[in-house]
Amino acid sequence: MSTHDETAAPMKAPQDAVRQESPAQESPRQESPPRRTQAERRARAEAALLAAAARLIAEHGSTGVTLARVGEEAGFSRGLATHYFGSKAALLARLQEEALAEAMAAAAPERSGAGAVAELCAFARGCLEGVRNPTDLGRAFVVLGAEALAGSSELTAAVAELDERTRGWAAEVVGQGLAEGEVRAGVDPRAFALALVGLTKGLVVQAAAAPEAFDVPVAVGEAERWIQLALTGV
Prior knowledge:
The protein is mostly helical and 234 residues long. Helix content is 77%, strand content 0%. Helix 2 packs across helix 7 and helix 5 runs parallel beside helix 8. It is globular.
């Protein structure tokens, strides 16, 4: 009998342990993360749709890309992109805004508290160094810019708006430099901004057309020297 009792006890102990531990094991399921809000779900879906649009445009251009195709590429229904963006033109405009934000973010680490020259050099450097390993978004931005130059009615207005915003940002930085005495007197902030956007966009287009022949360090060095000379005269 004692042998039976001694052998039975170990058999029951694991079961008891399982019963005792089961609440702890189940607690992660009970404490699952809260459900995302509608705004959070929409933001995630929009991000996925924009990423899908960037991939398609980078590979095929925008002409054959439809909202239905973007939805499918993102793994959603064919109609979700239309529901969120309303039109292809609106989607493309939003995509270009995201691409510009990506370019601006490349310079962000050096922008806070930096002088005008350092800030503008960082922006140009971020744009040009992005050519080394371009993201789908960056590649799509170049494609959209090239299509806008061809006169696509869906793209031209959006590109012009984004160029104006970039010029406005650059002019503001130069104006601050003038006020602080870093930028030499006589520099026209708007004229400089116009040239800066033309320089960076022109170099990025060259890189996209012939990436193997494009020397990024040389382009960065020359862009920085031009910015320094234009703003300080030395």
